[in-house]
Design goal:
mainly beta, six-stranded mixed β-sheet, 6 strands, 10% helix
């Protein structure tokens, strides 16, 4: 099986090797355990990681600020994603990652409905809002009381 490591290509088709200019990275069948080396790719906008069998930790994505698309597919041992994100990711795909722990958060501005993921239970839950207590009896008592005219006129 062929292993791929592609860095973004310029218009002439040459591979970009300067990490300050790289905007696209595709990792396929690479035996890495974490993505910590990506922290140097400060201009990385698109990341696609496919079938990296040893990948366990992707928390290093938290440091990147320009990511707009993250696709991680078929990384069966992947457990962790960032707890917080600096990037304005607009597209997040997490499929075939059976060991993934529940996400603590999603990138800012990304609607959880737009995330493609095998198990939606792994997405963070919206914080529950407290139900308003409506006590019809207390309201009726107040409205029917002799003090109502005083309450209205203050």
């Amino acid at each position: 099986r062929e292993r791929q490591l592609q860095l973004g290509r310029n218009r002439g088709g040459e591979l970009l090797s300067d990490p300050r200019r790289d905007v696209c990275l595709h990792l396929e069948d690479v035996g890495i355990q974490d993505l910590s080396a990506l922290a140097a790719l400060v201009n990385l906008e698109t990341l696609e990681v496919t079938r990296c069998p040893e990948l366990v930790d992707a928390t290093a994505l938290a440091t990147l600020e320009k990511l707009s698309s993250v696709r991680i597919k078929g990384c069966k041992k992947l457990v962790r994603l960032p707890e917080t994100w600096k990037s304005p990711v607009r597209s997040l795909v997490l499929t075939g990652c059976g060991a993934l722990e529940p996400l603590k958060s999603v990138p800012p501005g990304l609607d959880t409905k737009a995330i493609e993921i095998d198990d939606r239970k792994l997405l963070p839950r919206a914080k529950p809002t407290k139900a308003l207590k409506s006590d019809a009896g207390a309201i009726w008592k107040l409205l029917s009381s002799r003090e109502m005219p005083n309450i209205l006129t203050g």
